[in-house]
Amino acid sequence: MTALLEARNISKVYTAGSFGKKTSNTALDRMSLLIDEENPSVTVVAGESGSGKTTLAHLLLGVIEPTAGQLLYRGKDMSEMNADEHRVFRREVQAIFQDPFEAYNPFHKVDRVLIKPLRNFGIGGSDRERRQIIAEALEAVGLHPEDTLGRYPHQLSGGQRQRIMVARAMALKPRIIIADEPVSMVDASLRATILESLLRLNKELGISLVYITHDLTTAYQVGDNILVLYRGDVTELGDVDKVIKDPKHPYTHLLVDSIPIANPSHRWGKVGDVLATDDENDIVSDGCKFVGRCVHAMPICSTQRVPTYRTDAHRGVACYLYQESPAMKPEDLPHMMSEVALHNRSNQNGE
Amino acid sequence: MKDEILRVKDLRVYYHTPEGPVKAVDGASFAVKEGERFGLVGESGSGKSTAAFAILRLTKPPAFIHGGEVHLGDADLLKLSEADINRMRFSRISLIPQGAMNSLNPVMRIKGQLGDVISTHDKSMGKSAIANRIGDLLEMVGLRRTVANMYPHELSGGMKQRVCIAMAIALQPQVIIADEPTSALDVVTQRQVMETLANVQEMLGASIILVGHDMGLMAQFVDTIGVMYAGRMVEIGSVEQLFSDPQHPYTQMLISSLPSLEIKGKFHGIPGITPSLRRLPPGCNFHPRCPYIMDHCKTDQPELVENVAGRWTACHLVTADGAHELTAQTAPALQTSD
Fold it and tell me: A-chain residues within 8 Å CB-CB of B180?
């Protein structure tokens, strides 16, 4: 196993105000993640608004720097990369964002957003060759190049625009794609098509995906492993099948229970009163951040940071309900995740 | 059998453009029974929100109501005078708009905003009676009475949305139209807001029209679904029927495109794209994407017909005498097509 992209105990704290009225907000708290070079995987980061999932995306893309901890790409600390290494990173780690309209300059045809990065990174010898690469990438995501090129962004639908973003990322032959809510603004009938093309990049081209979402159903569909975030903390992580089919952390449980399943004979039960609280000021500084909404809250929960307990081979849960299971060291977590991905792949190949 | 409370007949809403009218809603018909939860579902551009706004006569230029009838009780809402329709809004039929939480006035306390709705329609109520009523309304939607003294920025998204529900039910309407009421909320909050909506609906015995694109939410909440595609109603049926035995090819493909927690790694997107309303295809609007296309689909627009009691479908494959060629002959093709 060789680490391609690695986050070691990274935190991001935002501070606001000045002088006496400074407030700080921990968007992400001591989290670790590892993308293995040899075994391309799909890692899902799931959470609601305020969970820190977009902060994580920005950190992994090098757009913002962690307040504490280390981010490494190909073993090199990202804050110490030289220009050449940074260039490699910029090409090999691509992003797809939520809003497929904001990524475009409305004054330019979509061709520009596709060809410029290729020119930047010197991919393809001539523009003719580059056009060929673009055409292939567009076809790979289910678009007809002749219907797509030469148009302005407003002439295309949201689904088409988002697929062009997937094609753009793909044409650069990256090693990792970080996709932050890539389908949340796309109509239901097109979601499947976009997710399918993303998944194909992973399966056929060996590109690792970090899929950031609030939608556990699509998370289940595309992911190998999952990290569930709640207010900057990882509450549960491991094999996506285990975490979603049999959630252990009370928060994951609530999340999975609240999925609007498209089946009228499996309707939601009632949400408990305890969980219905909307108070956002009940966070204790060091303990579990979910304690104010948790039906199983115990005195110990508010006192100290909850270790991650390994409840089974491919899952860790940061909850004192499972304190009989062995506690994991932070550095063990990413390795367990890679094992899950590897295990899933060998299962699939064996089928 | 409950009575129909709201009947929409052949509703047409067009947009004026330099190239001629664009038919955003092109002859939609459906009925909502007393106490029923009706889901109006469709993708962006299907005309679902335009139709919902037209029911309340809130259509604004360049859109205009070209024709149709909207019967609420004895009244045709489309024929009422401006003053009469104003009296109907909130008191007989109310709206929870999309992103309703952003519709609250940021510099006005919650009690002022709720109080406005009440006092505009009932001038006889005294100050303390209104304050009391506001407190009751907030409790009905699961908020503390003290929320009345707060400003919108002091509330979370879910709380603001519940304030909007309180506003919509302040005058005990018979019909509540909720246009994507939870589209900006997290899943847990969404569930709580929908539960609140269900609770107040039961208390009032009102009917709800839930407008949205999320089939999962529809499955969780509504009794009956009307599916719209490119301005037309393509299928209406009970939520159970529609999910277990969809008749229109669009509904079938829409439902099979939904990711589930049961089968993994199978994606069935709908090929092609939603047609632009400016350049609708001749015949059935769905024919360019339809796997079962026949010759007359390209020329004749199918009518919405009731082929089984309570089930309406606008498709040439579904004939009026109840025979349903689609499920009998062509359904296997759908499963083997991937």
Answer: none
User: The tokens of A119 are what?
Assistant: 């020119």
Q: How far is CA A109 from CA A167, A264, B130, in A?
A: 15, 44, 57
Q: State CA B64 to chain mean position distance.
A: 19
Q: Cα(B333)–Cα(B245) distance, rounded to whole angstroms?
A: 15
Note whether A191 contacts B269, CB cutoff 8 Å. Answer: yes
Could you read off the pLDDT of A167-177 as tens digits, one per residue?
A: 898 889 899 99
Global pTM? 0.83
Q: Which one of A148, A186, A189 makes the best mutation probe of the B interface by having the most chain B beta carbons within 10 Å?
A: A189
Residue A285's pLDDT band, with cuts at 50, 70 and 90, is: low
Cα-based angle A160, B251, B161 (whole degrees, multiple of 5): 75
> In this structure, how many other beta carbons lie within 10 angstroms of the beta carbon of residue B238?
15
Token readout for B185 is 């909320």
- Alpha-carbon gap, residue A62 to A81, rounded angstroms: 11
Distance from CA of A194 to the nearest CA of B (A): 8
At A210, the pLDDT band (50, 70, 90 cuts) reads very high
Q: Is the bond into B281 cis (omega within 30 degrees of 0)?
A: no
Contact status, residue A31 vs residue A234, Cβ threshold 8 Å: yes
> How does DSSP assign B33-64, residue by residue?
ETT-EEEEE--TTSSHHHHHHHHTT---TTEE
* Alpha-carbon span B213 to B222, nearest angstrom: 13
Q: Is A260 close to B243, i.e. CB distance below 8 A?
A: no
Beta strands in chain B (DSSP E): 4-15, 22-33, 37-41, 63-72, 75-76, 93-96, 175-179, 207-212, 224-229, 232-238, 305-308, 311-313
- Show which of residues 270-309 on chain A sit within 8 Å of chain B, judged by CB atoms: 270-271, 275-276, 278, 280
Residues 215-234 of A with CB under 8 A from B: 216-218, 220-221
Span B109-120, pLDDT tens digits: 999 999 988 888
Contact A261 B220 (CB under 8 A): yes
Decide: B239 and B39 in contact? Cβ < 8 Å: yes
B186 and A49 within 8 Å at the Cβ level: the answer is: yes
- Those residues whose C-beta lies under 8 Å from the C-beta of residue B215, and which sit 6 or more positions away, are A188, A262, B41, B254, B255, B258
| Chain A neighbors of B142, CB-CB under 8 A | 276
What string of DSSP letters covers B203-221?
HHT-EEEEEES-HHHHHHH
Q: Please tell me which residue of chain A has the smallest CA distance to B44.
A: A187
Distance, in Å, from the CA atom of B91 to the CA atom of A33, rounded to the nearest integer, reads 55
- Pairing relationship of beta strands B207-212 and B175-179 according to DSSP bridges: parallel
Could A188 and B254 be called an inter-chain contact, meaning their C-beta atoms sit closer than 8 Å? yes
Dihedral sign computed on CA atoms, order A232, A233, A238, A241:
negative
Say how far apart CA B305 and CA A186 lie, in whole Å: 31
**Preferred mutation among A197, A198, A263, A281 to probe B, highest tally of B CBs within 10 A:** A263
In angstroms, rounded to a whole number, what is the distance separating the alpha carbons of residues A47 and B199? 27
Q: Directed axis angle between helix A158-171 and helix A127-140, to 10°?
A: 120
Closest A-chain CA to B184 = A49
Taking contacts as CB-CB distances below 8 angstroms, the residues of chain B near A267 are: 219-220
d(Cα B189, Cα B209) in Å, to the nearest integer? 20
Indicate the pLDDT class of residue B324, thresholds 50, 70 and 90: low
Cβ-based neighbours of B39, under 8 Å, separated by 6 or more: B209, B210, B211, B212, B218, B221, B222, B224, B225, B226, B239
Instruction: Find out whether B110 and B148 touch, Cβ atoms under 8 Å.
Output: yes
Contact call for residues B35 and B205 (beta carbons, < 8 A): yes
